[in-house]
Structures are given as structure tokens and as C-alpha cells.
Amino acid sequence: MYFDDANKKYIILDIEGNSAQKENERKITQFAALIIQDNKVEEVNLMNRNVNYISPYVIKMTHISLHDCKDNGYSERHLVEEIHKLLSTCDLVYAYGCDFDKNILKLMFKKYKLPLLDVKWIDVINDVKKYLNPTKTKLSIAANEYGFDDTNFHNALVDCYATYHLMKTIEQVRSITIWYI
């Protein structure tokens, strides 16, 4: 259903931001992706060292501090160029609640004068509602209800794996449903 063509390059992504109020101060703090191609999964996990502010609420949620970004991050320009290059080579992007991700990428691509990409996005939350019907659609709740054990949500890489887990669960549910029809 999701990864039917082994020759295609699929990406599951998640982005954490600094929660700045002003648009010109918004930054990507962490970008993570799972690249799925040839039935293999590869991780990408990048931070932005040019972040000057992360709200205390975001630090508490993500466990990402300014220190983490400064020590482990790329320059913002390099980070955005790497994301652009990665997305320009994929066939399909999956994300869970993708509006924030799409909007911040659009903002960053514009800032660095990179062309917008014509990549198809699928918001996995819609399939979770349709096929799984969890008590709540919040990623942490839905993923935990369906057996995902990691509890470090709002870490972009963990959120990618939680989304991947839900997608695999949907594939199992759909194959059982199809079998019994």
C-alpha cells in the first residue's frame, strides 16, 4: 500500500521547530527522515546550529536544547539545502499532520531562494483515522495504542519511526480486511 514499488524513493519526515512567534524568527531545530528504497530503511537526523531561541515549552517537549543544536547542528543554509536535495530526489513524502512541516519548509526554501518542489505529500493521520480509529489521533497516543513502545515523542526521528509503525499497522489491518471480504 505505502511502499509498493521498491524502485521508488519514499520519505517519512518530521520537523521540530523553535516555536518563535514571528515568522522571520521561525527555525527548524531538528529535521528527521526515514528514506525507504529497495526495501531498506535509512535514517537522516539533522539539527540547526543557527537557532538562537527555543521556547522552554519546546525544550521540555523535544529534549532539544540550544546547546544540542550548537554542538551537533549544521548551518541553517546547509541544513535547508540538504533537505531540499533530499526531497528533490524522492517520489513521495509521508508525514503525520504535515501542515507545519510543509509550511516551515516553504518558508525556509523561500528564505534561501530555493525553488519550491513538486513532490506529492500524504498525511498519514488521514489513514490512521480511516483504518485504525484510535481513541485520539495525537501521534503519541495513536502509536502507543498500536504497540509502539518509544515514549520520546517530539524528537523528530522518534516521530518518524512512530509514523512508520502506524503505516505498517495499517498495511496489516488492510490485508486482513481484504482477506475477509
What secondary-structure arrangement, pairings included, does this model have?
Layout (H helix, E strand, L loop, with lengths): L9 E8 L10 E10 L2 E8 L8 H7 L3 H7 L3 H13 L3 E4 L3 H13 L8 E4 H9 L6 H7 L10 H25 L1
Parallel strand pairs: 1-4, 4-5
Antiparallel strand pairs: 1-2, 2-3
Helix pairs in contact: 5-7, 6-7
What does this structure look like?
By secondary structure, the chain is α/β, with parallel strands linked by helices. The protein is 45% helix and 19% strand. The protein contains 7 helices and 5 strands; from the N terminus they run βββαααβαβααα. The protein has a 5-stranded mixed beta sheet, sandwiched between helices. Strand 2 and strand 3 form a beta hairpin. The longest helix has 25 residues. The radius of gyration is 17 Å and the shape is globular. The two termini are 17 Å apart.
Order of helices and strands: EEEHHHEHEHHH
Rg, rounded, reads 17 Å
The neighbouring-strand order within the major sheet is 3-2-1-4-5
Strand content: 15-25%
Secondary-structure-based class equals alpha/beta
Measured as a percent range, the helix fraction is 40-55%
Task: Please report the number of helical segments.
Answer: 7
Shape: globular
- Termini distance? 17 Å
Global mean pLDDT: 92
> Which blocks of ≥5 consecutive residues have pLDDT under 50?
none
| Biggest sheet layout | 5 strands, mixed
Q: How many individual β-strands?
A: 5
